[in-house]
Every structure is written in structure tokens, then in C-alpha cells.
Design brief:
The protein is an alpha/beta fold and about 325 residues long. The chain is about 65% helix and about 5% strand. The chain is globular, with a radius of gyration of 21 Å.
Length: about 325
């Protein structure tokens, strides 16, 4: 099954198409073929925590519901795990391989908001009475219907539902601004100390700092002295390359930092986090033009065998060719 990741703007394009808007008509073929690919089980369109977060930020409830309904219909609430779940698993797998053990795969794909956030939100609060008049088959149907309704509510965020994940959403917002401020400060330091020729080493070093806690934990689990492990620059570089999501993050940040005139914005963290998982683990990624250009020009798409597009209308050809081959 093909795993397909669309950024938020592409889901909005599909919503416009589903609603019959004129500015969504150019995506009619893409939406029709995507829907059929999902129906036949050839493709899975996955949502990330970033999609929930960005959908919640839409001011209008009707707008959120229209978008969420489009997402729900095509994705079936298939989701991709967040960085704080993927990264420790990647580190442990790479460390196990480094020590000569058998590499274990991370649980990247799943279903529902809890998988997207790596959380344990209680969505199954409906309790049917223990009444023999409710047949077992009907009981299962009702439970499944309720679960689907709650998943849609978690995505569309009607009044009060956001309280279920408000703490996580607030952390997202704080992290967004911190990320933008941090990248701006880093760019300033690179220019101030004339270190642009060391950009790769600098970005690698900051990536290691970002993952130092799970890295230390994994080193300890495998009987390795953490500071000795990270003291070897070449080894650290090779190790980071062995962490797919962090290597994508490293490359996207490096490529953005090559242009000192391009400012960092809070939403860039959402983009980088989402793409860090989508690029190495999905088969098809449709994102905004600048990220698609960076991913393709850097060789990341070739490295992970991922088709990366910026034009949603091109997806039918990719889906059809992949299905045929």
C-alpha cells in the first residue's frame, strides 16, 4: 500500500474540490483517483499532528468541519507518529545496529489522533448498558460509529473538544515560536562568527543537542559512554545519517540556512517536523514548492525512494504508475 502525505494547503485544495468550488476544479481528477485508490486499498493518505494543530487554528467552525470531513473521508484517520515517538525508536534501532544487534522497526503508521500525537486521549467514553436486547453485532457497530464520530470531533474541533488536547496544542504553539527564535539566533551567530563554511557541522551539532536525552538513554541501555560516543565527529555524522527523520530535519535546516535572507517563521517547525517523518517513511509527499525543491535538489527524495511533488494535480500519474508497477 502506498503511503501518501499531503501538507495542509493540499488538503485545503482537496476540500475545495469536494465542495464543488471553482478554485478546486483543477484538482478534480486528483481527488477522484485518490479516492478510488483508497477504496481499492492501493493508497493510504496519512495525517500528522500538524494537520490537527493547523485545522484547529481555522477560526470558523464550518470551515474546520468542511476540511476535517475531507480529511476524514480520504485518510480514514490513518496517521503518522510524531517526532517524539519516532526519534527514540530510530535512535535505539541505530544503536542496536551499531552494537551488532538486530535492528527493530519503529511503529510509524497507525490510526487515530492518539497515534498522531503519541497520546492517550480517552475517546471511548460511551458505555452502552449491559442489556441483552442490544445484539453483539449492533453493539460493535455502535461502538465503531461512536469512535469515528469522536475522531472527527478531535480533528474538526467543535466547541469544547479542543480541551482534550489543549495541553498538547499549547506546547506546539510554544515550540513553534521557540524553534523560529532559535533558528534566527543560530543564523545570527553563524554570520557573526563567519562560520557559513562550517554550516553542515553546525547543523549536525545542533541536531545532536536536540536528541541528547534519548541518545543518552539509548547509550546507557547499550553500555556505551555517551560523551565518548558523541566526541567523535565522523561517528556522530554517520550515526545521524542512520536516523532517517533527523537526517531529513538536518538537511532541511541546512538548506534553509544557506540563504541568510530567508527569515524563519513559527510555522516552519510544523513543516520540518511533518516532513521529517513523511519524506523517509511515505511513498509520495506533496508539499509547498520551496520544501519540494529542497528535498529533491538535496537528494533526500532519491535517498528514501520518495516521490516529492509541489503540484497536487500531478498525483494521478504517480498513483497510477505506482499501482501498475
Amino acid at each position: 500500500m502506498l503511503r501518501v502525505y499531503l501538507d495542509q494547503a493540499k488538503w485545503i485544495d482537496f476540500a475545495k474540490c469536494r465542495l464543488g468550488r471553482s478554485d478546486g476544479e483543477r484538482y478534480r481528477d486528483a481527488f477522484t483517483i485518490a479516492t478510488e485508490a483508497v477504496r481499492l486499498g492501493h493508497a493510504s493518505f496519512v495525517l500528522s499532528a500538524a494537520h490537527y494543530y493547523e485545522t484547529h487554528h481555522r477560526a470558523s467552525w464550518s470551515s474546520r468541519l468542511d476540511l476535517a470531513t475531507t480529511m476524514a473521508g480520504l485518510s480514514k484517520f490513518h496517521t503518522i507518529a510524531p517526532p517524539h515517538v519516532i526519534v527514540p525508536a530510530e535512535i535505539d534501532a541505530a544503536m542496536t545496529s551499531h552494537c551488532g544487534g538486530r535492528r527493530r522497526s519503529a511503529n510509524i503508521f497507525g490510526v487515530g489522533v492518539n497515534h498522531a500525537f503519541g497520546s492517550d486521549i480517552p475517546l471511548d467514553r460511551m458505555k452502552l448498558p449491559d442489556d441483552s436486547a442490544i445484539r453483539p453485532a449492533l453493539r460493535i457497530q455502535l461502538a465503531e460509529a461512536f469512535a469515528q464520530m469522536m475522531e472527527l470531533a478531535a480533528l474538526a474541533d467543535p466547541a469544547g473538544t479542543l480541551a482534550l488536547i489543549l495541553g498538547t496544542a499549547r506546547k506546539f504553539q510554544e515550540a513553534d515560536q521557540k524553534f523560529a527564535d532559535g533558528q534566527t539566533a543560530l543564523a545570527g551567530q553563524i554570520d557573526a562568527h563567519k562560520l557559513r563554511h562550517r554550516l553542515g557541522d553546525i547543523v549536525t551539532g545542533t541536531e545532536i543537542v536536540d536528541i541528547i536525552e534519548p541518545l543518552i538513554t539509548s547509550c546507557s541501555r547499550h553500555g556505551i559512554e555517551p560523551m565518548e560516543f558523541v566526541s567523535d565527529r565522523d561517528r556522530v555524522h554517520r550515526f545521524l545519517e542512520d536516523l532517517p527523520s533527523r537526517w531529513v530535519t538536518r538537511e532541511l535546516r541546512r538548506l534553509r540556512h544557506r540563504n541568510p535572507q530567508q527569515r524563519w517563521h513559527p510555522h516552519d517547525l510544523n513543516d520540518v517536523n511533518a516532513l521529517s517523518a513523511a519524506v523517509p517513511y511515505c511513498d509520495i509527499v506533496v508539499t509547498e514548492r520551496q520544501w519540494a525543491r529542497h528535498i529533491n535538489s538535496s537528494g533526500l527524495s532519491d535517498r528514501y525512494g520518495t516521490t516529492v511533488l509541489h503540484d497536487l494535480s500531478k498525483i494521478p500519474e504517480v498513483l497510477i504508475n505506482a499501482t501498475i508497477s
